[in-house]
Write a structure and sequence with these properties.
The complex is a heterodimer of chains A (346) and B (451). Chain A is of the alpha/beta class and 346 residues long. Chain A has one domain: Thiamin diphosphate (ThDP)-binding fold, Pyr/PP domains (Rossmann fold), CATH 3.40.50.970. Chain A is built from 11 helices and 8 strands. In chain A, strands 2-1-3-4-6-5-7-8 form an 8-stranded mixed β-sheet, with helices on both faces. Chain A is globular and about 65 Å long. About 2% of the residues of chain A have low confidence. Chain B folds into 3 domains: 246 residues, 3-Layer(aba) Sandwich (Rossmann fold), CATH 3.40.50.970; 120 residues, Rossmann fold; 48 residues, no CATH class. In chain B, the strands form 4 sheets. Chain B has a 6-stranded mixed β-sheet with strand order 10-12-11-14-15-16, sandwiched between helices. Chain B has a 5-stranded mixed β-sheet with strand order 4-5-7-6-13, sandwiched between helices. In chain B, strands 1-8 form a two-stranded antiparallel sheet. In chain B, helix 7 links the parallel strand 6 and strand 7. The longest helix of chain B is centred in the C-terminal third of the chain and has 23 residues. In chain B, 45% of the residues are buried. The C terminus of chain B is likely disordered. The chains are: A alpha/beta (346), B alpha/beta (451). Strand 2 of chain A pairs parallel with strand 9 of chain B.
């Protein structure tokens, strides 16, 4: 499995810092001329991973398209905090219709642009994990299958945060939410690992699927740039920690995203036409416990006595990801991925 | 030039001459012939500069329509019945966003029980969605109304539903004149959107509006909708002039033999033709056809009905638990006038509305508040009788501690195994009471790390 090339200013890469680079190699965000596609002054919470991710995604998309960009937004935090009428944080054309239909609306936008012969204008749709993996799933799958020229970006904070932290199909095992409280013999979300949309997207054999986190922002920018260099349906899945829903300190957002990747729980990779083409290697893997502990949504695993059985199950999921995507260059690749039991009870 | 055409074909050809830019389509009977024809035209290249999008659901169809419309394309789609309900959320949304989409609704019943035939339950369910609703009395009107619909939608920035009775019109062959391209072009100028997604002039569309402005937004949308009758009649006159056929001039409401009529029948859609035939041979009865149902042209309805001594509203839908839907609108329009308004529910799920039944109905000495035309009363009586018996059986069974029910109506008696039933009761009694499964803990379980 080829590893992704190191991006400068990639934290943890031990590579050269941004300030020492030539201007053209620096991040979009370091430029005084950055687009500010979503300007400051919006109403996101402190430490919002989604606001950070969206800023990087859209500024890069706006730059690489020369500003020839229109966006479609699903209902959710991003839509609510950015457009409380009469305010709007958006400096790009922006359309919000409903919760479930961002992908279909974007298909319609792309179809209209094609019919009008204005294919120089590119379409980017975005939503949270609920609007992507659950209620918006049929529309998204249809958009993939038809080959519509849209980049869909999912900002995954692993639950319905806008409505008050309820479980979504992307909520990880044992995470506490308002609809999966930390009570009973199997506390928190059910012991699956949530709906793995990047892999489902790959099954559509679309030109490009990638995952990223808000810890590796240069990597995120590079993936947006790559996605926008292609045509057809593309999917970008960005892990965006949510201090409110995860019960984490706002200052910890970026660190938590990094720990998710370094633990193996959130594999960062790229795939083209259904095949994984590169992964972000884990150079210094951490036990999942190090990622889980700072989050109150997992606090019930660390009571007295701790639920080591459940933590071990989560560790197995991380191990399987590492094996499946060959995330650790120092671990020999396994022949078959680990099986994780989905049965109730550990 | 009049040609012998299927209604769906005439609608499709007319829509094509309206030069739509995007057509998202999802199949549902009886609307399919329309989008099939349009899809073929796009494939063959006879309909140019148009994208035909085969989406995965009606919800996606209306959603794609919204996106395309707000990107500045003229957008058309068609649906029926369950499909209309499935896209309901997006139907309301299209109106709220002011997307001037035109959609044909091939009217069909709503299940359960599943039924593919005609009534108007579908579009009636969405009458307050903020769309203009036009009902076609015949296939020539169905074709013409689509040209008017695009112009009306775009002039007001409001979406328009053209309702066409499923099968009765969509699948009927009639001599129809599809408006010539030059006429359509003259009546329907290129689409100039009010607001559009454009990188050169970025706008935010679909922002979140709170209590401080929501009422005003809704008021203004309603205000725009209410201007539709006047605009529609102006456009319709322009169209009829362009076609050179005054008889094809559409009106919000159309009266027939109402002058001096004792009774006026109010109806929507294809039943108009039958009704006109019937009243030709029934003394003192006229017909008022409502073409624009939303916004409801109350003033015109009131003016047209003011002289009547009895109003009969013929409804192809039923407001369960309430009665007639159009009746309510008619009653409101007639507020203060002392004239009885009777509801007749007819043609549900495709039951034909025959001339003989209508003639009998209109000459019947007394008419109740709500009458179901051609109701098979023997079936109803038998079923209601059976219900009553079952009701008694249930009570009796309980009171007499599960005495076997005697054989009735040739049905086998329901035997109770008293021994087994007693066993079950004893078992149930021995169970402990249900306790709450666990403590409901909403308090944070710890301090935020690093805080």
């Amino acid at each position: 499995m080829p590893a992704q090339s190191v991006k400068f200013y990639q934290v943890g890469s031990r590579a050269v810092g941004n300030r020492l680079l030539d201007a053209e190699l620096r991040t979009e965000q370091s430029s005084a001329d950055r687009r500010n596609s979503i300007t400051s002054g919006h109403r996101a919470c402190q430490g919002c991973g989604e606001a950070l991710g969206a800023r990087y995604v859209l500024d890069t998309a706006a730059r690489v398209t020369g500003g020839r960009l229109v966006t479609v937004n699903a209902t959710g935090c991003l839509e609510v905090f950015s457009t409380p009428y009469p305010e709007s944080a958006w400096q790009v054309p922006w359309l919000h219709s409903l919760f479930a239909n961002a992908a279909s609306v974007a298909s319609g936008v792309a179809a209209a642009l094609e019919a009008q012969g204005r294919t120089d204008i590119r379409v980017l749709a975005q939503g949270g994990d609920g609007g992507t993996v659950d209620i918006g799933f049929a529309c998204l799958s249809g958009m993939f299958e038809r080959g519509d020229d849209v980049l869909f970006v999912c900002y995954d904070n692993e639950a319905y945060m806008n409505t008050g932290v309820q479980r979504s199909g992307a909520t990880p095992a044992y995470a506490r939410t308002a609809t999966t409280e930390a009570v009973g013999p199997i506390p928190g979300s059910r012991p699956g690992q949530g709906k793995d949309l990047p892999r489902i997207a790959m099954a559509h054999e679309i030109p490009y699927v990638a995952t990223a986190t808000v810890a590796e922002l240069r990597d995120l920018e590079a993936k947006v740039e790559k996605a926008m260099s292609m045509r057809g349906p593309r999917y970008l899945h960005v892990l965006v920690p949510c201090p409110l829903g995860w019960g984490s300190a706002p200052a910890e957002t970026v660190r938590l995203a990094r720990l998710a990747q370094r633990s193996g729980l959130f594999p960062v990779f790229e795939a083209e036409h259904g095949e994984v083409t590169s992964v972000l290697p884990i150079r210094d893997r951490i036990p999942v416990e190090e990622y889980l502990r700072p989050q109150r949504r997992y606090a019930h695993l660390f009571n007295d006595p701790p639920r080591t059985d459940l933590i071990e199950r989560i560790q197995q999921i991380a191990d399987r990801n590492v094996a499946r995507y060959h995330l650790n260059p120092h671990e020999a690749p396994r022949e078959t991925p680990l099986e994780i039991s989905h049965e109730e009870g550990a | 030039m009049r040609r012998q055409l299927e209604g769906s074909r005439a609608i499709a050809e007319t829509v094509a001459r309206c030069r739509p830019g995007v057509i998202p389509a999802y199949p549902i009977t009886p609307q399919t012939h329309i989008v099939e024809a349009l899809g073929t035209m796009v494939r063959k290249g006879t309909l140019t500069s148009c994208r035909f999008l085969t989406v995965e659901s009606e919800f996606a169809a209306m959603s794609a329509a919204i996106g395309a419309s707000l990107t500045g394309s003229r957008v058309y789609t068609a649906t029926s019945s369950q499909g209309l309900l499935y896209m309901t959320e997006a139907v309301f949304n299209a109106a709220g966003l002011g997307a001037p989409i035109v959609m044909t609704v091939a009217n069909r019943a709503i299940g359960a029980p599943i039924n593919i035939w005609n009534d108007q339950s579908d579009s009636m369910a969405l009458r307050d969605s903020g769309w203009i609703q036009l009902h076609a009395p015949d296939n020539q009107a169905a074709a013409d109304l689509h040209v008017l619909a695009f112009r009306l939608a775009e002039e007001l920035s409001v979406p328009v539903m053209v309702c066409v009775d499923g099968f009765v019109l969509t699948h009927a062959f009639e001599p129809i004149d599809v408006p010539e391209q030059e006429i359509v072009d003259a009546v329907l100028p290129p689409y100039r959107p009010r607001q559009v997604l454009d990188p050169d002039a970025p706008v935010t569309i679909g922002a979140m509006v709170g209590p401080d402005a929501f009422t005003e937004v809704k008021y203004l949308a309603d205000h725009a909708l209410r201007s539709a009758p006047a605009v529609f009649e102006r456009i319709a006159a322009e169209f009829a002039d362009a076609v050179g056929a005054p008889q094809r001039r559409a009106c919000c409401v159309q009266d027939y033999s109402t002058t001096g009529a004792d009774t006026v029948v109010v109806a929507l859609g294809s039943v108009t033709g039958t009704l006109r035939d019937v009243v030709d041979s029934v003394e003192g009865v006229g017909v008022l056809t409502v073409t624009m149902y939303r916004p409801f042209p109350a003033e015109q309805v009131r003016a047209a009905l003011a002289g009547a001594r009895r109003i009969v509203v013929l409804e192809r839908a039923l407001a369960s638990g309430a009665g007639g839907i159009v009746t309510s609108d008619v009653r409101s329009a007639l507020a203060g006038l002392d004239v009885p308004v009777h509801t007749v529910i007819a043609g549900l799920g495709g039951r034909p509305i025959g001339a003989a039944s209508l003639r009998e109905l209109l000459t019947r000495p007394g008419l109740g508040d709500v009458t179901f035309l051609d109701l098979r009363e023997d079936v109803i009586d038998r079923e209601l009788g059976r219900e009553a018996v079952h009701e008694t059986d249930r009570e009796t069974a309980y009171e007499t501690d599960r005495e076997p029910v005697a054989e009735r109506d040739g049905q086998p008696a329901i035997e109770f195994d008293r021994e087994a039933a007693g066993e079950f009761d004893r078992e149930l009694d021995s169970q402990p009471a249900l306790e709450p499964a666990g403590e409901f803990d909403r308090e944070p379980a710890g301090e935020p790390a690093g805080a």
